[in-house]
Specification:
Helix content: under 10%
Low-confidence stretches: 1-7
Number of strands: 19
Shape: elongated
Number of domains: 1
Strand content: over 45%
Distance between the termini: 42 Å
Radius of gyration: 25 Å
Largest sheet: 14 strands, antiparallel, barrel
Length: 440
C-alpha cells in the first residue's frame, strides 16, 4: 500500500528538476505546526525519527506507531503567467519501541527525495517554431532502523544519544521532449533516470534538564549530524525519435538514437547539521491548587546544509550544482492543563489539547539567474490526545502557508498551502501484554 501511494506524483515543484529533487517528505503533522522543528524531543508521546536520540525518551512499556498523510497546494508564477500544482502523499510510517528504561529502537519508511514537474517552453528555431516540454517524476525512499541509549537518566536530567541506519532505494526521472510545429506530433524525446541503491546513517543527541526541584522549568538542547554520503547509483540515458511524443508507447518510439544503461557511479550527498534549543515552564500552583496548571514552551532550531558539495559522478555526465543553505525556525507550544488527574470545569478536553504555532525562514539550494531562492512560512497545529483510556495515542493536525522565490518579479515564485494529518497509536495502560506483574 505504501509503495502504491508513493508511486503517484510526489512533488509538483519546478525546483525539483535539479539533482534528485526536493529533499525530505511533506510536513509531518506533529512537527508541521511547530515551524517544522524536528530535532527536539518534546515529550514521550511523539516519535522523532529526525533525531534518533529520541527513542531513549519513550515511556517504559509504551511503544508508539505513527502514520501521516499530507497535501500541498501550490501556485507558481513569473512574468510569463502562472500555473497550479498539487501533491498528496504519505509523510511517515514509523514504529518506536522502548526496551527497559534507557534503551529504545525505532524503525520506519519515509521519502528521502521527491521529483515532479511539468513545464513547457516555446522558441523559434530556423524557419519554424519548436515546443520544448520538461517532465519529472519519481522518488527515493529511506528504510531505516535506529537505536538510542540514555547515558544519564535521573529525576531531573536526561541525556540520550542515538543513530539511524538505513537503506536508500528508488528512482527519479527527467524527461525532455522537443517538437517542431511543422512536424508535430513527431519529435525527439530523451530520458535520464537516477536509480539509488545506497546506505544511509545519521547521529543525534538530546539533553533535557529540569531547572528546579518542582519540575516547572525545563531546558531542551539537541543536535543532529548527517555526514556527507557517497551514494551508489546508476544513471540510465536514452534518446529516441517518436512519431507521437504525447503517447510514448513502444510503437511510437520508432528510432533509438542513443541508449546507455547501468552507467554506474556515485552521488555525493551533502552533510547536514541541526542545532535546537527550547525552554518550557509551568506556574507554581502549590499555593493555589485550583489554578490551571498550564505549560508554555518556546523552541528554536537552525539547520545548515553544505549543498555545494553535491556532485553526480558519472562518465559523460554534467552534474547539477547547488548553493549552501541554512534554515531558521521558531515555535511556541501551549498546553492549558498538563496535570494528569486535574480536570477543568466545563470544557475539560480542550484544556488537554496541544496548541502550536511557528514559522521558518531560510535559503533553498536552487538558484534562478544567479539568485538563490528564499523560503518563508508560518504554521499552526493541534495535538488531540485520546482521553478515553490511559494511553499516549493522539491525533495531530497542522497547516502551513508560505512562499519560495528569489524576490525578483521575473523569476519563478511559489506560494503554497499545506495540510497534514497524523495519528500516533500507543497501547492503553490496561493492555495486559504491556503490563509487568510482580505478583500474579
Amino acid at each position: 500500500m505504501c509503495y502504491t501511494a508513493w508511486s503517484q506524483t510526489t512533488s509538483s515543484s519546478a525546483y525539483s528538476a535539479a539533482g534528485l529533487g526536493e529533499e525530505g517528505a511533506l510536513p509531518e503533522a506533529q512537527y508541521g505546526g511547530l515551524g517544522n522543528i524536528s530535532s527536539i524531543v518534546f515529550d514521550s508521546t511523539l516519535i522523532n525519527t529526525y533525531n534518533p536520540a529520541s527513542y531513549s525518551f519513550l515511556s517504559f512499556g509504551q511503544p508508539l506507531f505513527s502514520v501521516g498523510v499530507a497535501s500541498k497546494f501550490s501556485t507558481y508564477s513569473d512574468d510569463q503567467g502562472s500555473y497550479k500544482g498539487k501533491t498528496t502523499g504519505i509523510s511517515n510510517f514509523t514504529l518506536a519501541i522502548p526496551f527497559g528504561k534507557r534503551l529504545g529502537i525505532g524503525l520506519g519508511l519515509k521519502p528521502f527525495t521527491r521529483k515532479g514537474y511539468n513545464l513547457s517552453q516555446r522558441a523559434y528555431a530556423y524557419d519554424d517554431s519548436v515546443t520544448y516540454s520538461y517532465l519529472g517524476s519519481g522518488s527515493t525512499n529511506l528504510l531505516f532502523v535506529g537505536v538510542a541509549y540514555s547515558i544519564i537518566k535521573s529525576e531531573r536530567t536526561n541525556l540520550g544519544i542515538g543513530a539511524n541506519f538505513g537503506y536508500l532505494f528508488g528512482s527519479v526521472t527527467n524527461q525532455r521532449r522537443s517538437v517542431f510545429d511543422a512536424n508535430s506530433p513527431a519529435g525527439g524525446v530523451d530520458f535520464s533516470t537516477f536509480r539509488l541503491r545506497a546506505l544511509y546513517y545519521s547521529f543525534g543527541a538530546n539533553f533535557q534538564h529540569f531547572l528546579d526541584f518542582d519540575k516547572r522549568k525545563q531546558l531542551f538542547v539537541s543536535a543532529v549530524y548527517t555526514p556527507q554520503l557517497s551514494l551508489n547509483s546508476y544513471l540510465d540515458y536514452s534518446l529516441y525519435y517518436a512519431t507521437d511524443v504525447t503517447t510514448l508507447t513502444s510503437t511510437s518510439l520508432t528510432d533509438t538514437i542513443s541508449y546507455v544503461d547501468n552507467n554506474k557511479g556515485k552521488i555525493i550527498f551533502p552533510s547536514k547539521q541541526t542545532f535546537g534549543a527550547g525552554y518550557a515552564f509551568s506556574p507554581n500552583i502549590s499555593r493555589n491548587p485550583d489554578k490551571l496548571n498550564y505549560q508554555l514552551g518556546i523552541f528554536g532550531e537552525v539547520t545548515l546544509t553544505q549543498w555545494k558539495a553535491y556532485e553526480e559522478q558519472f562518465s559523460e555526465h554534467s552534474s547539477s550544482s547547488f548553493s549552501n543553505t541554512f534554515t531558521s525556525k521558531i515555535a511556541l507550544q501551549f498546553i492549558p492543563n498538563i496535570s494528569i488527574d486535574k480536570k477543568t470545569k466545563g470544557m475539560a478536553y480542550f484544556s488537554k489539547i496541544k496548541y502550536r504555532i511557528g514559522g521558518q525562514y531560510g535559503l533553498l539550494p536552487n538558484t534562478i539567474n544567479g539568485r538563490q531562492l528564499k523560503t518563508t512560512a508560518v504554521t499552526a497545529g493541534f495535538g488531540f490526545p485520546f482521553l478515553a483510556q490511559k494511553t499516549n495515542s493522539s491525533l495531530n493536525l497542522s497547516v502551513q502557508y508560505g512562499s519560495n522565490g528569489t524576490g525578483n518579479s521575473t523569476d519563478l515564485k511559489e506560494r503554497f498551502f499545506s495540510v497534514s494529518f497524523g495519528i500516533i497509536i500507543a497501547p492503553s495502560s490496561y493492555e495486559r501484554w504491556f503490563r509487568k506483574y510482580k505478583l500474579d
